[in-house]
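Marked as duplicate of an earlier ticket. Keeping the data here for the record.
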Amino acid sequence: MRRREFIAGLGGAVAWPFAALAQSRPPLVLMWLGGSADDAESQRRRQAIRAALQQLGWIDSRNIRLEFRFSTDAAQSRAVASEIAAIAPDVIVAATAPVLAVAHRQTKTIPIVFMQVTDPVSDGFVASLSRPGGNVTGFTIFEHSFAGKWLEMLKEVVPTMTRVAVVQNPDHPAWNAYVRAIQQVASGMNVEVTPTPASGPAELEAGLAAFGRTPNGGVILLPSPVVTTNRDLIAATALRHRQPSIYVVRAYPESGGLMSYGVDTADLIRGVAGYVDRILKGAKPGELPVQAASKFEMVFNLKTAKELGITVPATMLGRADDVIE
């Protein structure tokens, strides 16, 4: 997928108070990330955001203040949203679609930059990709049809797979579109698709165990803070039930899952930092075009493949960005 650049819009309806940053306090940026604060992937993203902003001249606790919040479910998101008025951030970075939905309902004036949203137009966050309007802009990770690639890749690794569980948090707004894309690809492969909703660790484990009672199954884990946070549990459960599985971030095979294919998060964060920088210097979010991610990575865990009795095709290993042995 190549980066889609759009021509900026001609006007925004809201004026932003950042023309003069020589205020009594440094600007405050609220980094609202999915996952939990102590999760290794969350810590990696936190460090990457700090580093990306520092490259642009923004140093935390010196000329900018960064506050981080984390949420994996609706209750935690509501709790963070209730803080926004008291925190009074100058910019909000919303990592995921569920987080963005709550933040967008909470404020129509504070600039919001999102970083992991699939279809911001259909979800009502922006008017268009080229001219977002309002107070929201950011970076999409891929189109819903991208989900079909996960099935194609899993089938290429495991040609005998005839069934696939599609695991996702049912509260995620992109759930149905992802499943439809996978079903469309599956129809031409003679693969049966089993939607498996799970909003917490107990449901995740039970769903994978139930699906694993029948052989020749694989697992597609759709993007969700619930999945990211519980990836160790998912990887162990999938391995116990002999289920090859694929997820969107490299942290999953690092935790023992079979493979991942998705956006290069570090590259995405650099783009988000660039938009935060421009907004703090006076740019209007509604005039910054929504951009598509441009770098993707494929990662395999060969130790897990061996335990599953799978030989990853050499052609796929040749395309991989990283191999964990």
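See parent ticket for discussion. The chain has two domains: 28-142+263-295, 144-262+297-324.
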